[in-house]
Structure formats: structure tokens, C-alpha cells
Amino acid sequence: MAEATAVKAVKEAVYKWEGTDRKGNRVKGETQGPSEHYIKLQLRRQGINPIVVRKQSALFGKRKKRIESGDIAIFMRQMATMMSAGVPLVQSLEIVGRGHENPSMGEMIMGIKANIEAGNSFAASLAKYPLYFDDLVVNLVDAGEKSGTLEALLDKIATYKEKTEAIKKKVKKALTYPTAVIVVAFIVTGILLYFVVPQFQELFQGFGADLPAFTMMVIGLSHFVQEKWWLILLGAGGIGYGLFEAKRRSAAFRRLLDRLMLKIPVVGDILYKSAVARFARTLSTMFAAGVPLVEAMEPVAKAAGNIVFQEAILVMRDQVATGQQLQLTMQQSGLFPNMATQMVAIGEESGALDSMCAKVADFYEAEVDNLVDALSSLLEPMIMAILGVLVGGLVVAMYLPIFKLGQVV
């Protein structure tokens, strides 16, 4: 029964309605729901007598958008705020789901609500959407429901999601900026080779003299681009697709790629410190919620964002299960900085592991922020140099024959 209800909720549509309220005033609006009957029932519960209810055409309805991780972070904060204000769980989901700007997100929230109304727990309802709610969130919500501290744990989850989203955006910014500039530089170079260089070549044909070697090389490259541009695009697309599929299908390739990424100057440091920050932030959140350390380690490993760290944390989990201290397993892994290891050791000795891990996370999140700013400053002159070499080199190659002609005259 619960499964059937969940399926119906996912297939909700937008319905336009008109009716009268308790005072006889005419009202109208839009509501999402699985059927016309359901919409009428909901309106009557709100004291509205429905007169017209019609399904809105998908052509003119809200365009569905993909559910992003940022949407989940906002949803958890909204739920934490609503629950702290004393609004019941089902009503909180109703309010958040109906008013969400992303129709796909609204449908999912109403699906969660329908599952709860069918008798499932909040944690079990979230678990039906594993693409958006991982084991960490489900386990924390389950612990909150069983201990009667759901409001407090929702606040912890919301804070955790906000922190992890912030660090993801910083890392994405660090990787996107140089990639975008390099791509634009190659596009500009391709345009110059395809459209501009041939114009100079026609001019050079009337010189009746040998062209410099550098100019001949650029003209040859221009010919190749003109004749084989489709091969270049196909090759670039094939390489990109091949790398994507290899990363998706091969754990060995992901391991190699993640190891290489950690060794890139500056960028590798950002990725390394962001992984340490995620490890500490996730462990702090899980431990503060009362989840045993061994059980917490698997969600912590998944949240690390790097397969090298993930595998090391899973090994640490097995070592902790045999009775070893966490800080010793961190030292043996050889991955974690001394500062993080020492802070964890102090936390274990003082019984304040959650707060110490939170301090470690705060420190390394600030470090990532500083590194991203430093990378942006460092990249500006490097980007100017790359553009200068690519574009300036083409310009020099085209004007060399003209300079030589001037010398002869």
C-alpha cells in the first residue's frame, strides 16, 4: 500500500482550480497532486469549496528542473526551521513541498509526505529516494526519530549540508575557472587558424619569396584544421567520453585519477584539504548524533569525495572495530595531516571527539577558501601568458613575412 501511494505521489501534476472560501469569496490558485479528486479533497480540508479543477497542460506548466544537491541542503534547513517553530512534520512537508520553486523537488517532497501518511517513518520515506538522501542523512533522521530529538538532528543535518555544499562550490570554482579559460583559448586559436590565417596565406602567395619556417608551420596547421576539423572535434569528444566512461566503470582508473589529482600543484592541495574537511565534518555530525564510531565510518568514507580517502577510511573502520584508537589508524593510513591527527587524539582522550572534529573541519574549510583565492590570483598571470603564447604566436607568424619584406625594400 505504501509503495503504491509513493508511486502516485511521484506522478503528481499541476492543477488549476477555482472555488469559494468560507466567507463566499471567490478564490483561485494552483496545486500539485496525483489526481483531481485528491485536489478537491485537499481544498475542502482548507475550507475551500472547489468549483472548477482542471489539469494544467505540460506545455504551459512549470518546466521541470533537475534536483541539485543545493536543493537538498535548502530543504533540510527549511525542515529544521519549521520543526523548531513547532510545526508538525507532515504539515511542514506540505508547506515546503507546495511552495517549492523546483517542481521536481516539490513532487519528491510530496512523495515523502505521502509515504509518511501511509504509515512509514520519516527516515524510511527519505530512504526511498537514495539518489538524493544518502545513508548518512537517513541514519541521522532515524536516530532523531527514535530518540525524540528529530528537531535537533535536522538542524545538525542542515548545517552539515550547508558546510559541505560551500566547500564543494569552492572546489568547483577552483577547477572550473582555469578549465574554462583554456577551452576559450583553444577555441579562439581554432577560429584564427580556420578564418584568419587563410587570408594572410592568399596575401603571401603574391610575395614570390620563401616564407619563414614558423609561418609555414602555422599555415600547415591551418590547412589541417580546415580539412580535418571534424576529426579534431570527434577526437576531442571521443577522448572526453572515453575518460568519463572509464571513470564511471573502472575503480582502478578512478583511483589513479584521484591520486594524480592530489599531486597537481595548488589544485591537489585544495582537493586534499577539502577531503580532510569533509572527513572531519561528517564524522563530527555523525558522532554528535550518537552514532557509534564504527557505524559512522562507512558514511564518512562515502562523503570524502576521493576514492583514495574512501578506501583508507574503510580500512580505518576495520581497524577501529578491532579496538584501535581512531588517531592511530589515521597515522597508519599516512593520509591525514599531523594537526588533524593530534586534534582527534585530544578529542578521544577528552571525550569531545565531535567538537574537536568540528574544529578540524572549520580550520581546513578556511584553508580551502584561502587556497582558492590564492589560486585565482596565481592563475591570472598564467592565463595571460597562455593566451599571449597562443594568440601572439599566431600573430607573429603571420607578420614575419611582412617584416622580412620591409627589410628587403
Structure explained in plain terms:
The chain has helices at 2-10, 36-45, 69-84, 89-98, 103-117, 122-127, 135-147, 150-204, 213-249, 251-263, 267-288, 293-303, 307-321, 326-333, 338-350, 353-408; strands at residues 13-20, 26-33, 49-55. With 409 residues, it is mainly α. It folds into three domains: 13-55; 69-165, Receptor-associated Protein; 170-408, Receptor-associated Protein, CATH 1.20.81.30. Strand 1 and strand 2 (26-33) form a beta hairpin. The N and C termini lie far apart (93 Å).
The amount of helix comes to over 70%
CATH homologous superfamily label of the largest domain: Type II secretion system (T2SS), domain F
- The proportion of residues in beta strands is 5-15%
Distance between the termini: 93 Å
CATH topology of the largest domain: Receptor-associated Protein
**Spatial strand sequence of the major β-sheet:** 2-1-3
Helix/sheet category: mainly alpha
Low-pLDDT parts are 1-10
Transmembrane segments: 175-197, 229-246, 383-403
Subcellular location: Cell inner membrane
Protein name: Type II secretion system protein F (GspF)
Main location: membrane
Question: What is the topology?
Answer:
Elements: H1 2-10, E1 13-20, E2 26-33, H2 36-45, E3 49-55, H3 69-84, H4 89-98, H5 103-117, H6 122-127, H7 135-147, H8 150-204, H9 213-249, H10 251-263, H11 267-288, H12 293-303, H13 307-321, H14 326-333, H15 338-350, H16 353-408
Antiparallel strand pairs: 1-2, 1-3
Quick synopsis:
This protein has 409 residues and is mainly alpha-helical. It has 16 helices and three strands. The chain has helices spanning 2-10, 36-45, 69-84, 89-98, 103-117, 122-127, 135-147, 150-204, 213-249, 251-263, 267-288, 293-303, 307-321, 326-333, 338-350, 353-408; strands at residues 13-20, 26-33, 49-55.
